[in-house]
Specification:
RluA_PseudoU_synthase, RNA binding, 7 helices, single chain, S4_RNA-bd_sf, Pseudouridine synthase, 9-stranded mixed β-sheet, isomerase, Structural Genomics Hypothetical 15.5 Kd Protein In mrcA-pckA Intergenic Region, Chain A, alpha+beta, 4-stranded antiparallel β-sheet
C-alpha cells in the first residue's frame, strides 16, 4: 500500500471513517488523518499523536516520523515535535512501508543478566556493535538477539533495530536492556526518552579519565551538536539548530598519581546521565579537560600523557584499543509488573587491568 493511498483509514477525533484503526495493528504503509478535539488543546504534537496512534506506537517512533517530514498539520509538513496542538487542527501521518527483515540471527554468545517474556538484560562486551549499519551488517548485538530470542523480539523499533530502546557505543561495555514485546518497547522507550526525570530510570557509567577534576563532584550542563566533521559530537552554542540539551553528573571515585608530579594523573569517575545524547560522557568529560583514557575521537590531544607513565603501565595504556568506559548500572521499572529492577555489570577484564595499573604506579 502506498503511503499516500486514498483508501487508507481516515481517523477523526470522535469516530472512524474508513476500514481500519491504528489499534488493529501497526499502520505501516498507510495514511492516517486525525482532527484535534478540545482535549488536545495545548498538548505537544508528539505526545498527542502517540496517545492517538495506539499502544503499539511509541513516542520516540512518533518523534522520528515528525522529523522525517511524515506528519502534516493543516496540510503543511512540520518537523518540530514540541509544536502545540490547537482545537480543530487536522493532522495527517504518512506511515512508511515496512522495511524488509534484513538482519539474520547469528549464534553469537550473550552474557544474559536477566530475561523474561517482556525483556532481556545483557552485559554487552566491548567491540560489539549494537545494530546493523554501514560497514557492520553482521556480527551485531541485533543478530545475536534474533538468534537468541527468535520471533519474540519486538520489531517496533525498525527491522534493523528490533527491540533496541537505547544503545552503547561499539567499544563501550556494560548493561543494556532490550524489549521482546511491543508493549515493553513502548514503555522502555518512553522511560529512556524521559531520561528518568519523572520515572525511576537510572544509568551509571565508570570512566577512567585523564587528570583529576578539581572538585570531587560536578555537573556538566552543555548542549551537544555535530562537530565540524559531521561525524563526531561537540559542545555547541544553545542557539544552534542542532543543539541538544545534555547534562552529565560526575563523581570522582579514585585518584591516581597525585604524588607523581612528573607523571600523568588520572581518575576513575562515575558518570550519571540526566540525558542520553550520542557520545555524551566522552564529549562532556573532554570538554572539562578530562577525556576518557583511550578515546580515539575525543582524547587524541592527551595521547602523549602515556609517555610520562612508568612501565609497564605506559605500554598498557598505549596498547589499550578503546575508550575506558563501562555502563556499570541500569535501573528501571518493569514495563508490566512496574516493579523496580536494578542490574550491575562487572568491569571487563581489560579495563580492570588498566585501572589496576594506575592504582600501582
Amino acid at each position: 500500500m502506498s503511503a499516500h493511498n486514498e483508501e487508507a483509514p481516515i481517523l477523526i477525533e470522535d469516530g472512524l471513517i474508513g476500514n481500519g484503526s491504528p489499534n488493529d495493528g501497526s499502520p505501516e504503509g498507510g495514511s492516517i488523518m486525525l482532527e484535534a478535539g478540545p482535549d488536545a488543546a495545548g498538548q505537544r504534537l508528539d505526545q498527542w499523536l502517540a496517545g492517538k496512534l495506539g499502544p503499539d506506537m511509541s513516542r520516540s517512533r512518533v518523534q522520528m516520523l515528525i522529523r522525517q517530514g511524515a506528519v502534516k498539520v493543516g496540510g503543511q509538513p512540520v518537523n518540530e515535535t514540541k509544536r502545540k496542538i490547537a482545537v480543530g487542527d487536522h493532522v495527517s501521518v504518512a506511515m512508511p512501508e515496512p522495511e524488509p527483515a534484513e538482519p539474520q540471527g547469528e549464534n553469537i554468545p550473550l552474557d544474559v543478566l536477566y530475561e523474561d517474556n517482556e525483556l532481556i538484560v545483557i552485559n554487552k562486551p566491548p567491540g560489539l556493535v549494537v545494530h546493523p549499519g554501514a560497514g557492520n551488517w553482521t556480527g551485531t548485538l541485533v543478530n545475536a538477539l534474533i538468534h537468541h530470542c527468535g520471533d519474540s523480539l519486538s520489531g517496533i523499533g525498525g527491522v534493523r533495530r528490533p527491540g533496541i530502546v537505547h544503545r552503547l557505543d561499539k567499544e563501550t561495555s556494560g548493561v543494556m536492556v532490550v524489549a521482546k514485546t511491543d508493549r515493553a518497547h513502548k514503555s522502555l522507550s518512553e522511560a529512556f526518552a524521559d531520561h528518568g526525570l519523572t520515572d525511576d530510570l537510572k544509568r551509571a557509567y565508570l570512566a577512567l579519565v585523564w587528570g583529576i577534576p578539581m572538585r570531587p563532584t560536578g555537573t556538566v550542563d552543555e548542549p551537544l551538536g555535530r562537530a565540524a566533521d559531521r561525524v563526531r559530537r561537540a559542545v555547541v552554542p544553545e542557539s544552534r539548530d542542532d543543539a541538544r540539551h545534555a547534562v552529565t553528573h560526575f563523581t570522582v571515585v579514585e585518584r591516581f598519581g597525585e604524588q607523581q608530579k612528573e607523571s600523568a594523573t588520572a581518575s576513575l569517575v562515575e558518570c550519571r546521565l540526566e540525558t542520553g545524547r550520542t557520545h555524551q560522557i566522552r564529549v562532556h568529560m573532554a570538554h572539562i579537560g578530562h577525556p576518557v583514557v583511550g578515546d580515539p575521537d575525543y582524547g587524541q590531544a592527551f595521547r602523549t600523557k602515556a609517555n610520562r607513565l612508568p612501565e609497564p603501565l605506559k605500554g598498557r595504556v598505549k596498547a589499550f584499543p578503546r575508550q575506558a568506559l563501562h555502563a556499570r548500572l541500569l535501573e528501571f521499572r518493569h514495563p508490566t509488573t512496574h516493579l523496580p529492577m536494578r542490574f550491575e555489570a562487572p568491569v571487563p577484564r581489560d579495563m580492570e587491568e588498566l585501572v589496576d595499573g594506575f592504582r600501582r604506579f
